[in-house]
Amino acid sequence: MVVGDFAIETETLVVGAGPGGYVAAIRAAQLGQKVTIVEKGNLGGVCLNVGCIPSKALISAGHRYEIATHSQDMGIFAENVKVDFSKVQEWKAGVVKKLTSGVEGLLKGNKVEIVRGEAYFVDENTVRVMTENSAQTYKFKNAIIATGSRPIELPTFKFSKRVLDSTGALNLPEIPKSMVVIGGGYIGTELGTAYANFGTKITILEGADEILSGFEKQMSAVVRRRLKKKGVDVFTNALAKGVEEREDGVTVTFEVNGETKTIDAEYVLVTVGRRPNTEEMGLEQIGIKMTERGLIEIDKQCRTSVPNIYAIGDVVAGPPLAHKASYEGKIAAEAIAGHPSEIDYLAIPAVVFSDPECASVGYFEKQAIEEGIDVITAKFPFGANGRALALNEADGFLKLVLTKDDGVIIGAQIVGPNASDMIAELGLAIEAGMTAEDIAMTIHAHPTLGEITMEAAEVALGSPIHIINK
């Protein structure tokens, strides 16, 4: 058969093989569908290749270096600690390769056909998949769009050798002496922290009145204090105006409190959000409704305005989280199979791998009050936990948001070590409709950070053991 002569038929076509797309493809295959997945880049998408995984690897390496050089409080004095950054990058690449090759194995093991190329929708049942040298038509019964997002580029900060997006920052050949980070959200804070741990002089410029604006100010304040200890300068309510590039660095101009300032650095990292990849796919011509921001409108089953085409992940509304995309991918695959599955975002966690980590699930206190829910809150500090003290990580707290009348847990926020892992128990508690009593009566191993969850539940019940009940 000559490539492009005849349409190849499939039941479910998935466009994009990131954490949303490949999960959707596998789940659809498990449900008995003949599945084809189309990917123009590397399997695993942004998350595995240039996002979640490599950034956490870099953060982990930076944290190891910081511990090696800053453990004097514990009586540990290290001399001549060196970083071979090329080796760090090699190790990081190895982690990525292991996971991406694993994704390929999982897809093949579930009999999902992998097609390389760029998809263009011809009509509601047809796409053309194009490469540099060929084009092939595919006919499908249902399709799932999971094409993800890309960093927003500011007109006054065009990406270049010295003006970096998150991908560029992850792949620097050596540790920079200095870096300006524009945007104090989760990406800017994470990468800024990682390089600060390696010794880079970091300056963060944030337009809002606090970094990590998606979290409560009490939480971001803990992170900001730790950043200050690392020598990081944070300017809030700051407007980045422009950049002058040189062969060996940049000069960034910004405005804060009505005053114009400049700062020199080797690099500037721009992390001001992400834009959905929904252009040049033919979506408009087949009648798929989108918002002004280019997000695809969906219903509770991830179905678009074209009934047999679904959309998940960063191309639909909501935070650009890998686990949100994976969750939506399962919902879409099950909806195609005729299951009554629907999306429910209440128990979806948000995590920032800052120092210390931040995590949240369910309602924030303010959000619950605004929605007319009568709530109480309970808080327990990491500083009163034996395991946290033994780790020399006593900053932070865990906060529960509960209904006032029956003590049902509807929200939780954590800032502290291992918050990213601890939040899972509270996500389960919300999903299962558990109460403070359910958590307090669950025996938690001692000494562990998990005890903090139990202690906060006891605070909610008015019977805390390890802090004074006020």
From TrEMBL:
Tell me the compartments it is located in: Cytoplasm
Positions annotated to bind NAD(+) = G183, G184, G185, Y186, I187, G188, T189, E190, E206, G273
Q: Where is the catalytic site?
A: H446 (proton acceptor)
Give the EC class as a word: oxidoreductase
Which biological process, per GO, is one annotated for this protein? Answer: 2-oxoglutarate metabolic process
- State its Enzyme Commission number(s): 1.8.1.4
User: Which positions form S-S bridges?
Assistant: C47-C52
Q: Which cofactor does it need?
A: FAD
Q: How is the cofactor bound?
A: Binds 1 FAD per subunit.
Keyword entries, A-Z:
Cytoplasm, Disulfide bond, FAD, Flavoprotein, NAD, Nucleotide-binding, Oxidoreductase, Redox-active center
Q: Which GO terms describe its cellular component?
A: cytoplasm
Q: Where does FAD bind?
A: K56, T147, G148, S149, D314
Q: What is its main location?
A: cytoplasm
Q: Which InterPro entries match?
A: Class-I_Pyr_Nuc-Dis_Oxidored, FAD/NAD-bd_sf, FAD/NAD-binding_dom, FAD/NAD-linked_Rdtase_dimer_sf, Lipoamide_DH, Pyr_nuc-diS_OxRdtase, Pyr_nucl-diS_OxRdtase_dimer, Pyr_OxRdtase_I_AS
Q: Which reactions is this enzyme annotated as catalysing?
A: N(6)-[(R)-dihydrolipoyl]-L-lysyl-[protein] + NAD(+) = N(6)-[(R)-lipoyl]-L-lysyl-[protein] + NADH + H(+)
- Where in this chain does the record put each FAD/NAD(P)-binding domain? 12-329
The GO molecular function terms of this record are: dihydrolipoyl dehydrogenase (NADH) activity; flavin adenine dinucleotide binding
Superkingdom is Bacteria
The Pyridine nucleotide-disulphide oxidoreductase dimerisation domain sits at 348-456
Record-linked NCBIfam families: lipoamide_DH (TIGR01350)
What family is this protein classified in? Belongs to the class-I pyridine nucleotide-disulfide oxidoreductase family.
Further comment found in the protein's record:
The active site is a redox-active disulfide bond.
Question: Any idea what this protein is called?
Answer: Dihydrolipoyl dehydrogenase
